[in-house]
Amino acid sequence: MARNRVQFQKGYSLVQFMDEYGSEEKCTEALFRWRWPNGFVCPRCESTGYWRHQSRALYQCRSCRHQVSLTAGTILASTKLPLRTWFLAMYLMTQTKNGISALELSRQLSVSYNTAWKVKHKLMQVMKERDDTRPLGGWVQLDDAYWGGQRHGGKSGRGAPGKTPFVAAVELNEEGRPMRMRLSRVGGFRSDEIAAWARCHLEPGTVVVSDALGCFAAVKHVGCIHQPFVTGSGPQSAKHPALTWVNTILGNVKRSFHGTYHHFSSKHLPRYLAEFSYRFSRRFSLREMFPRLAFVALRTPPMPYRVLKLAENYF
Ligand SMILES: [Zn+2]
Fold first, then answer.
1. How many C-beta neighbours within 10 Å does residue 16 have?
2. Residue 39 Cα to ligand 1 middle (Å)
3. How far is the CA of 36 from the centre of ligand 1 (A)?
4. How far does residue 48's CA lie from ligand 1's centre (Å)?
5. CA of 181 to the centre of ligand 1 (A)
6. What is the number of structural domains in the chain?
7. Domain for residue 16, yes or no?
8. From ligand 1's centre to the CA of 60, what distance in Å?
9. Digit-coded pLDDT (tens) for 5-40
10. What percent of the chain has pLDDT over 90?
11. CB 3.0-4.6 Å disulfide test: which of 82, 147, 198, 285 passes with 219?
């Protein structure tokens, strides 16, 4: 039987990772390279000469004497954790197929649960902000989905109480294979919500395939082309061939969440969805996922805990 090339690709082993980033010095060097790919540039005066304080990862501009740490102004700002702890967290979050819970992360990193939670949510925020700048295009399958609420008994499906609505979108290439995906919390399935979502996440001219749920026609307001299919309701509806990929992937998301997490608050659902999508959209290159995440983390602004814990940032 032919092996799936994505599943059987040569990964990035923990042994390789530890060889490359197993010490604080190696992590500092890597972070310096990723932060200043063309050499040090003073954020205040743009001079390139600097001294490094050996005791701390602190760099001082030779011209204006401004001091800057490697992590200042980034999502890692004012961290008390060793860089290698952050690196290992990024490694574990990108190389595990179904993600890793904060509880498991706390065991693997030897840090408290609260610390692991903050690390995980900051890195998920990096993933979210990164993908939020990259709209889907070409052919996109779009569907409505819900998370949480009553799992047993009671009302199920659209509009059941306690369920959190989100949009699932999968971008296909010319051969009809899924390339990237986007999962976004929405306030509800209304035309204004879908139009606002599409403005952020779809390129104009995208061909959108969905079921006949009325609100999806709103993608036309932002220059997309809409092809609705009447799928009917009940279990058969999920089998319509035009929506195969989005339905398959939604099944995977839900299985993955139930398998990895005991529980998480629905107010943080957007970040969990973004983390799953981020890994899926980059699954063709496991090896590259770690350095790319680190690179982007250095370009993501700080987010203090008080904001991190409140945030119900929609799309
Ligand atoms: Zn300077």
1. 11
2. 14
3. 14
4. 8
5. 42
6. 1
7. no
8. 8
9. 777 777 899 999 999 999 999 999 999 999 999 999
10. 74
11. 198
Q: Is residue 68 part of a domain?
A: no
Contacts 24+ apart (CB under 8 A), 6-13: 6/283, 6/284, 9/284, 9/286, 10/287, 11/95, 11/286, 11/287, 12/91, 12/95, 12/286, 12/287, 12/289, 12/290
Give a yes or no: residue 60 inside a domain. no
Q: Which domain holds residue 158?
A: 139-272
On whether the CB atoms of residues 208 and 220 are closer than 8 A, the answer is no
Half-sphere exposure of residue 18, counting CA atoms within 13 Å on the CB side?
3
Q: Where are the alpha helices (DSSP H) in 22-132?
A: 24-35, 83-95, 102-109, 113-132
42 alpha carbon – ligand 1 mean position (Å): 5
* Cβ neighbours around 158 below 10 Å, total: 13
**Of 208, 142, 146, 211, residue with least CA distance to 181:** 142
Does residue 196 sit within a domain?
yes
The CATH number covering residue 224 comes to: 3.30.420
Expressed in angstroms and rounded, the spacing between residue 37 Cα and the centre of ligand 1 is 18
- For ligand 1, the distance from its centroid to the CA atom of residue 59, given in whole angstroms, is 10
pTM, rounded to two decimals: 0.91
- CA 123 / ligand 1 centre spacing (Å): 29
Question: Which is nearest to 141 in space by CA: 74, 231, 48?
Answer: 231
Query: How remote is the CA of residue 117 from the centroid of ligand 1, in Å?
Result: 35
100: helix, coil or strand? Answer: coil
Could you read off the pLDDT of 269-286 as tens digits, one per residue?
Answer: 999 999 999 999 999 999
Asked whether the beta carbons of 24 and 30 are under 8 A apart, the reply is no
CA of 51 to the centre of ligand 1 (A): 11
- 32 Cα to the center of ligand 1, angstroms: 17
